[in-house]
Amino acid sequence: MLVHAALITVTTALLHLSVVQSAPQSPHLIFIVADDLGWNDVGYHNPDIISPNIDKLAGSGIRLNQSYVQPLCSPSRSAFMTGVYPFRMGLQHMVIGESQDVCAPLNRKFFPQILKENGYMTHMIGKWHLGFCKWECTPTYRGFDSFYGFYSGGEDYYTHVYPNGYDYRYNLTVNTEAAGNYSTYEFAARAEQIIQDHDQAKPLYLYMPFQSVHMPLQVGKHICSTCTCHSRVYICLSRVYTYFSKLVHTCSTCTCPSRVYTCLSRLVITHALYLFMPFQSVHMPLQVPDKYLEMYPNIKNKNRKALSAMVTSLDDAIGRVVTALQDKDMYQNSIIVFTADNGGWTIFGGNNYPLRGGKVTIFEGGTRAAAFIHSPLLKQTGVIYDGMMHAVDWFPTLASALGITYNDSLDQDGVDQWEAITTLAPSKRSEIVYNMDYHPAPVEGQSAIRFGDYKLIEGYPGLYQGWYKPDSVDQGVEISAGQLANMTLDTPAVQELMRSGQPQSLAKNHYLFNLKDDPTEHNNLYDKLPEVVQQLQERLAEQRKRYVPPNFPPNSPKANPKHFGGVWSPGWC
């Protein structure tokens, strides 16, 4: 028995060495998250996008063709950090608001905590968006040695205000020196500093969730310096209740978008070094220095032009990080992961073509991420991996890549995919739960599951359910308040709901797709394959036994920045 166990241990070690070449110490890990980046928003999927650094890393690494995320920001980030499906933690409904008394469950161990226990220096740069009502919820209490960025879901790229409070920190201290500086540049500079100062006696984990290419819908620094008005659009998928009573135009020197609030808490709809860099890019607002806009003279749609330019600025920032690793002689022993947190938001410049839908939907366009792994340590490079993986898999997969083991008591949904990905072997998973959300609302919730090649959607799949070419949607700042209302509330079910105030059944919203034959989800097989539908419904029913109702409290006035000197701050819950 002892001999058998020893042989297994030796075989496992040799297998690990066969896919990752030997290194003098544990590899450094750079984990980059692009915010609201669509499938069609990177150069290696779309030649109209200028992203040479991203393309080079992807082309000389392993591109992940079926890497799934959640359809919105907070749920995906919680999955990255815990390896647990959001529907099992109460985080499946929308995103964590800056005024909500909630954060990612404190009883769940985060990935950087595991790395710290194994000797890693852990740093985070960028967007948190996992709750901050009390200090225990914030990055430096959850495994990061340092934090440089913002707590909320989005902010002005230059002023760092969102929407009525300043939000930018260095560790626990408010960082006012960043005011006026473009956040993508700030994040890249901070990464360069961390790498330059890093003691290579310890491995590095750098988590970089960039702000880009998230909204707001403003482009060019000249607009930021002359305007104080911002377009704020919140789309809540539980209820749709629109407010158009406050259309704010505060500048006479420029055309400012109307301040539109589509409230989603009540709204009526049709139903080594671990450097974690979750950039806000390309999340709203769509702000970017003019030099990047000038690189896209042929794009006429303002939002598409701005978002494309933001991808290029993000690409430059990533190039700076790679150069810093090379200059420090750390690159050869580094693993770089790149992923979007959800699909592109089609009405605000993002694009997922030819996939269906986008951000906030559970169609492929909202949940299949542009993602890759790059490392000089990989044996196979310049390849595409077509196996299924999910955001919850990153935790165990990267722990395996770094040679780290941890206790099974974490009760994760993620599986270790490192061997499968690096040897191009079949995926270790055959099933993915896209989401499961039955939050009480005037309309039914949603659930979706994939088992093998088949995908079942039940309930409301989300806004903007079509197929959108890059120039096919008049987006964001081009849309008046009334037009936006029509876009979100123009279905008979919603109109009836708004008239009667009574719940409407969305039971007719059923879809079944064979994603192997139909990855763009054109052919609904729900009525043609009842046996397959029943099989997937049984799988959903089994998963539902683990369902935790959403923790989605109302906004609290205690969170108002006016209580904290105009700054978004913890310490009120």
Automatic annotation (TrEMBL):
Instruction: Keyword check for Hydrolase, yes or no.
Output: yes
Task: Look up keyword Cell membrane and say if it applies.
Answer: no
Renumbered residue ranges of the record's region Disordered:
547-573
Query: Which one of the record's GO molecular function terms can you name?
Result: sulfuric ester hydrolase activity
Obligatory cofactor(s): Ca(2+)
Quote the CDD domains the UniProt record gives: 4-S
Keywords per UniProt: Calcium, Glycoprotein, Hydrolase, Metal-binding, Signal
Task: One Pfam family, please name it.
Answer: Sulfatase
Span of the secretion signal? Answer: 1-22
Task: Output the superkingdom of the source species.
Answer: Eukaryota
Where's the Sulfatase N-terminal domain?
A: 27-219, 274-404
The family note in this entry says:
Belongs to the sulfatase family.
**Protein's recorded name:** Sulfatase N-terminal domain-containing protein
Species: Elysia crispata
